[in-house]
Amino acid sequence: MLKTEFQKLGKSFAKVADEIGCSKPTLINIVNHGTFPKRNETALRDQVLNYFKQHGVDVADKLTPKVKKDNDMLLRKSALSQATRQHFGLTRDPFHDEIRQAQDVYLTPDVRYVREALFQTATQGGFVAVVGESGAGKSTLREDLHDRIHRENRPIVVIEPYVLAMEDNDQKGKTLKAVHIAEAILAAVVPDVSPKRSPESRFRQVHQALIESAKAGNKHILLIEEAHSLPIPTLKHLKRFFELKQGFERLIGIALIGQTELAQKLSENNPSVREVVQRCEVVTLLPLTDGKLQGYLKHKFERVGVKLEDVLDESAIDAIAERLTFTHRNGKNQLQQNSLLYPLAVNNLVSAAMNEAAGLGFERVDADIVKGI
């Protein structure tokens, strides 16, 4: 990048950084990697260009502005390199394939509530929709539910229809219909029994199978991931599965897990699903704001035997929160903050910052390193 041109200046990084008005790590990133911090990128680029020009070194061709990427690119996967793990004394990556037991899950108040809501739906029957952004931890809570049922030896049958190609219309993929849900229930509850051919006979078969399973002491939960891709007719039909009873006892609980589009489909303003809305509790996984970020990172590093303060200083924590918080104008032209402080985004940003710090030989990650990613 600018290594050769920088050497022509005959000055140290610290001296040049001070004269330009930026931090030393930021200047090292610019010279060695050609990367600028996202914030104030244009202004800093002009400052560096003018500084080199004033000292008789033309670097205009090497400081061509890069095409700006969407904020979603912050979610790009980043794993710790072997050199980084050795640099920080880590025996394994705290952010990759790190959930191996229930104790590895960081329980914020809202995560704890969602976890219990799912468990109560499985044990007592109920209708709940878990909504969250991509990377918010929804799949982790589904896996935690499976683990808890197995660990506590609960007689609960988990019914999970396959959603590999599911879309909310047949033009983009395959829709999940009520008949497919009936097949999934039969496959989980009475796997040796063939489904009846006619829809009426099949649904009667489903009801009877659930009754017999309940008599044997089993509970049932229908768990559908990627539920934001469920078509409206199927959402309406779920109400009828939910109402299957033996006397007063519900035979099946329903848990939907999906992205924020699911909350829009289950909006009170959507009259086409009003029967579902009146029965379904929508719970949302919130970002790691209000002091939860530091607790989350502390938990992650403690699970691999390392102290948070040995890897990130306090300024880095604030910089991570700032970097993953965006301000934009809503439909009413009002300024609104949007937070991407979800586990996956935090994991990727911290991993990239640690790789950068290790590559530069820094003892800890600081705010300048984070801002330079």
Automatic annotation (TrEMBL):
GO molecular function, one term: ATP hydrolysis activity
Pfam families cross-referenced by the UniProt entry: AAA_22 (PF13401)
InterPro entries (UniProt xref): AAA+_ATPase, AAA_22, ExeA_AAA_ATPase_DNA-bind, P-loop_NTPase
Domain AAA+ ATPase span(s) in chain numbering: 124-281
TM regions (residue ranges): none
Name of the protein described by the UniProt record: Putative secretion ATPase, PEP-CTERM locus subfamily
Source species of the chain: Alysiella crassa
